[in-house]
Design goal:
By secondary structure, the protein is an alpha+beta fold. It is 21% helix and 32% strand. Strands 1, 2, 3, 4 and 5 form a 5-stranded mixed sheet that branches. A 5-stranded antiparallel sheet has the order 9-8-11-6-13, with no helix packed on it. Strands 21-20-23-18-25 form a 5-stranded antiparallel sheet, with no helix packed on it. Helix 3 packs antiparallel against helix 4 and helix 7 runs antiparallel to helix 8.
Length: 444
């Protein structure tokens, strides 16, 4: 370990990228005790980085006295906040060459064979999908000779299963490999990274109490029915949840923050924000935390002063925006869900119609069209400055939009809200005509 410490002091990089072409890639060797014969052996440590994953420590022990050897892998980081589950659909022999980091806490399953390797029955390993299959075959074949003598029937069944397991390497039919690790430190390679891998699905989950105990994060005598931190709704409302995703622009790994917010005199809303460190793309979106209302909602605000610009506003993704004085109508699909102010919504409308319009610049810039859009922009600025009176209409057939009543709980003289029955076409757009939540089993 002194070699590693010296490397830190020199300011060098201890963890090097995993590459077979690196000729200077030398492991660290230390003298250690053999647990088989209790003589001194040699342990070789290799500190490396798996691309698009994290740092790991590969260790290999060998003893010259008794020839005993052992190889394992450990994560160089901490246990992650959530567990991870990789589901790989193997359709070709190329998929067998994917690199796999399997920690000892991971469970490996092949659903097609109803085969499972429980956690902590194998040491952690840096291998490939094919290597995992070979390791499983070797483990089952290890005691076959003894089984054949003690119970030939069981040995025969295991032999037949081994043939099925070996046949998977021919990939005559597609099969699935699932690696579920509550520590969150296992990994399956994505050869197309940072692009999306259609054959690989990655999901994160909250550990159960039993899994927390297996990882040593909870005492063994702690009750299993005790709720995990963050499970209750009050805790979820007070914290920001973070989960991994891909950037919608460059598809690089990114993180999305999600927060549950209670809007006064309305309902709960879910605010999500994604930030990509690779390309700098940022996006935010708001979704209603409740169900679709029985009736649609139409909110009309008469803008009379600049103070109206500070009203909080929740525009769901199903809400249309109208400004009658400008003969302007914005459909429900033009802007995503937003939790903003009246000024923020008007600014977004201006940017969408004018600033981000590709037909107002270059060869596409028609003089008449440019002039009309310029006048529209000036009118929006006048409304924001309180110099022009106008009406802002939010029409949401799902009933999940909201505009702040500054006089609450009294009625607002400048704002009206009415509910209405949705038309068949509106129900069709919302997907409600084909949705049946009661008595759906009676038609079977």
């Amino acid at each position: 370990m002194s070699v590693i410490a010296q490397e830190h002091v020199r300011g060098g990089s201890v963890f090097k990228d995993l590459s077979a072409d690196d000729e200077d890639w030398q492991p660290t060797e230390i003298e250690s005790l053999c647990m088989n014969c209790y003589q001194n052996g040699r342990t070789r440590l290799l500190l490396t980085k798996v691309p698009f994953f994290k740092e790991i420590i590969v260790s290999s022990f060998s003893c010259d006295e008794c020839s005993w050897s052992n190889t394992e892998i450990q994560s160089a980081g901490r246990i992650q906040e959530q567990g991870v589950c990789y589901t790989l659909k193997v359709t070709s022999k190329h998929d067998l060459n994917r690199e796999v980091v399997k920690m000892d806490s991971a469970t490996t399953r092949i659903p097609e064979l109803e085969f499972e390797i429980p956690p902590f029955t194998q040491k952690g390993a840096l291998s490939t999908v094919e290597g995992l299959l070979d390791r499983a075959v070797a483990g089952l074949e290890q005691d076959q000779a003894a089984r054949q003598e003690a119970d030939p029937e069981v040995a025969g069944k295991i032999h037949a299963f081994l043939q099925k397991l070996k046949k998977l390497k021919d990939v005559e039919e597609a099969f699935t490999v699932v690696i579920e690790d509550p520590s969150g430190n296992s990994f399956v390679e994505n050869p197309s990274a940072p692009l999306k891998d259609e054959a690989l699905t990655v999901s994160w989950f909250r550990r159960s109490v039993q899994q927390e105990k297996l990882l040593g994060l909870r005492a063994d005598d702690e009750p299993d029915d005790e709720p995990l931190p963050g499970d209750d709704m009050d805790t979820m409302r007070s914290e920001v949840l973070v989960f991994n995703t891909n950037c919608p622009e460059c598809n690089a790994p990114a993180s999305t923050n999600m927060k549950l917010v209670q809007i006064p005199h309305f309902k709960e809303a879910i605010i999500m924000a994604t930030n990509c460190d690779a390309c700098g793309h940022r996006t935010n979106e708001v979704k209603s935390g409740g169900a679709t209302e029985e009736k649609g909602t139409k909110i009309t605000l008469r803008i009379t002063a600049a103070s109206d610009m500070t009203r909080d506003l929740l525009k769901s993704e199903t809400c249309s925006v109208f400004i009658p004085e400008l003969d302007f109508e914005l459909g429900m699909a033009a802007l995503c869900g937003k939790f903003t102010t009246v000024e923020g919504l008007l600014t977004d409308v201006k940017d969408l119609v004018v600033a981000k319009n590709p037909f107002v610049c270059g060869d596409s810039g028609d003089t008449t069209r440019v002039q009309k859009l310029k006048e529209f922009s000036e009118k929006i600025d006048s409304i924001i400055a309180g110099q022009m009176k106008a009406h802002l209409v939010l029409d949401d057939p799902a009933g999940n939009s909201y505009l702040e009543n500054v006089y609450a709980p009294e009625s607002d003289p400048e704002m009206t809200m009415e509910t209405y029955e949705r038309t068949f076409e509106q129900n069709e757009e919302l997907g409600l005509n084909d949705m049946k939540t009661e008595g759906y089993q009676e038609d079977k």
